[in-house]
Amino acid sequence: MRNVMSWLANLFARGEPALSEASARDAGAIAALHSHSFRRGWSEPEVEALLLDRHVIAHRAGSGVKLAGFIMSRLVEDEVEILSVAVAQSQQGRGLAARLLDLHLRRLAGLGARAVFLEVDEHNRPAIRLYDRAGFAEISRRPNYYPASSGTAAALVLRRDLA
C-alpha cells in the first residue's frame, strides 16, 4: 500500500504544464523546441520577430521555466494560419497539444477569427488525429511539399470555421 501511495504522490506532484500566452522572452526556448521537432527549425531571431509581430498570437505550455510545448499563428482580418505547433518529446501523448490547440482556438475566436487554416505533412498521423478531433477538415493538398526520407510528402491543407 505504501508503494502505491508513493507512486500516486509522485504522479500528481509532477502536475500539468501551465498554459499561458507566449512572449518574446520565450523566443530561445521556442526556437530550440522547434528545431528539435522539425526538419528545418526556426532560429531564435526568426521566432523573436514572429512573437513581436502584432498579428502573431502564441501560447506556451511550461513547467516553471521549462518549455513543454507551444502553438503560434498569424491572424489577419478574420482568418488565421496556424504557423506551428510543437510539444516536447517527453510530454507527447498526454493531451498537451490538444489543450494548447483548444486554448488557442478559443483566444482566436475571442479576437474575431472566423476561419483557421494550417498545413500538415500527410504522414504526420498524430497531428492529423489532433486536427481531426478539433474539427478541422481537409480542403486541399499540395503534392511534393515536404522533404521526406523517401522523396517528398504532400501537405494537407486543413480548415476549421470558428463562427
Overview of the molecule:
This protein has 163 residues and is an alpha+beta fold. It is 35% helix and 38% strand. The chain contains five helices and seven strands. A seven-stranded mixed beta sheet has the order 1-2-3-4-5-7-6, with helices on both faces. Helix 2 (27-37) packs across helix 3 (44-52). It is globular and about 40 Å long.
Largest pleated sheet: 7 strands, mixed
Give the domain tally: 1
Mean pLDDT: 90
Helix-strand sequence: HEHHEEEHEHEE
Work out the number of β strands: 7
Widest beta sheet: strand line-up: 1-2-3-4-5-7-6
Classified by CATH, the class is Alpha Beta
Helix tally equals: 5
- The radius of gyration over CA amounts to 17 Å
CATH topology: Aminopeptidase
Binned strand content: 35-45%
Q: Architecture in CATH?
A: 3-Layer(aba) Sandwich
The CATH homologous superfamily name equals Gcn5-related N-acetyltransferase (GNAT)
User: Which class of secondary structure composition applies to the elements?
Assistant: alpha+beta
- How would the global form be characterised? globular
Low-confidence stretches are 4-13
CA(first)-CA(last) distance: 51 Å
**Residues in helices, as a percent range:** 25-40%
Concise structural overview:
The chain has 163 residues and is an alpha+beta fold.
Task: Output the keywords.
163 residues, Aminopeptidase, alpha+beta
Please outline the helices and strands:
Blueprint: H1 2-14, E1 18-21, H2 27-37, H3 44-52, E2 56-63, E3 66-76, E4 79-87, H4 96-110, E5 115-121, H5 125-133, E6 137-148, E7 151-161
Parallel strand pairs: 4-5
Antiparallel strand pairs: 1-2, 2-3, 3-4, 5-7, 6-7
